[in-house]
Amino acid sequence: MEVGGLPVTQNEFLPYMNEEKGEVTNYFNVTYGAEDSKHYWREQGWRAFICYRYGH
What we know:
2 strands, two-stranded antiparallel sheet, 56 residues, mainly alpha
């Protein structure tokens, strides 16, 4: 995965994502009607977080 054009491992990225998980989930739920689910963070959440946080 890349963040800001730099390669980042999932282990490096996870602590930052976990800090903002609630805010990102709420934003995508309110803005796009995305529902949080058991598999959300495995299937969509990583991309949603990067899009929300870094505008990509």
